[in-house]
Design brief:
It contains 13 helices and 7 strands. The chain has 298 residues and is an alpha/beta fold. It has one domain: TIM Barrel (Alpha-Beta Barrel), CATH 3.20.20.70. GO terms for molecular function: 4-hydroxy-tetrahydrodipicolinate synthase activity.
């Protein structure tokens, strides 16, 4: 069994944008094609039903079918669905659905219906781990108001509830503390615009946004950074950073979908309450994307 099979969350897993038709219905055919295209272009797998996939505004039926579509397209080992929900029981049901669909791991936010304390976070991860599928924690204190600090992550890992963490706090210093407290817990890059810093700090993977539009160059960037090829990595990072930083902005879904449209993919619209980009935002993203295309990065 390969390392990737043992730890299927390693490498470049793309938090997939979700194609919608003109009536804002999920286009599962285009989504299947997109998943396949990402893997064909060097990505290691996909993460459906994350924030970039607009899971919060999907019906339960749509959300389940998105997972099934991804598994049918590229195989379950390469699919790590987001299973976030307001209640732990609902998150566990989504983990069980992913498990039954053939997925090898799931990604889980902490409780986000309120500012949960440490005991609540512990109980939440314990419940979902009971589904029997490996859990990757997702630390996004900006959106959830719950911060999975290194000490808490180490406890959750020590109890066997999590195997890795997607780190989105933006604080790269945590990587070193986490490696000291829980050396077997895999750190995954969670924000595109700190990729180089976290890769150099020993990250084992990247739950990525911008490969939705620019998979080959983004994969090359990650492989160079993780492999210590700083000359290649720094140049690509500088070229891509005007786009990568949009992954940490409120409008990240709209931004990435626009870049997808510009490079000839299907990005398209978002469901409300997300609204179209402001003209100045669209102009900045368009200019940065076209510059990347001109540089041969598409």
């Amino acid at each position: 069994m390969t390392v990737t099979e043992q730890r299927p969350w390693r490498g470049v897993l793309v938090a997939t944008a979700l194609p919608l038709d003109d009536n804002l219905r999920v286009d599962h055919g285009k989504y299947a094609e997109h998943c396949s295209w990402l893997v064909e272009n060097g990505c290691d797998g996909v993460v459906p039903n994350g924030s970039l996939g607009e899971y919060q505004v999907l019906t339960p039926e749509e959300r389940a079918k998105v997972v099934e579509t991804a598994v049918a397209a590229i195989g379950g080992t390469r699919v790590m669905p987001g299973v976030a929900a307001y209640g732990s029981a609902e998150s566990r049901r989504w983990a069980e659905q992913a498990r039954d669909a053939g997925c090898a791991s799931v990604m889980l936010l902490p409780p986000n219906a309120y500012r949960a304390d440490e005991r609540s976070v512990h109980a939440h991860y314990e419940e979902v781990a009971g589904a029997g599928v490996p859990v990757v924690a997702y630390n996004n204190p900006i959106d959830t108001k719950v911060d999975l600090v290194p000490e808490l992550l180490a406890k959750l890992h020590g109890e066997g509830y999590i195997q890795a963490v997607k780190e989105f706090s933006g604080d790269v210093r945590r990587a070193y503390q986490l490696a000291e407290l829980a050396p077997e817990l895999d750190l995954l890059i969670g924000a595109d615009d700190v990729l180089l810093e976290l890769a150099l700090a020993g990250a084992k993977g990247w739950v990525a946004g911008y490969p939705n539009a620019l998979p080959r160059s983004c994969v090359e960037l990650y492989r160079a950074a993780a492999g210590g090829d700083l000359g290649t990595a720094k140049k690509l990072y500088e070229q891509l950073h005007p786009l990568l930083r949009w992954d940490s902005k409120v409008e990240f879904v709209q931004a990435i979908k626009l870049s997808m449209d510009i490079v000839g993919r299907h990005g398209g619209r978002c469901r409300p309450p997300r609204v179209p980009l402001l003209p100045e935002q669209e102009a900045a993203i368009r200019a940065a994307t076209e510059k990347a295309v001109a540089a041969g990065l598409a």
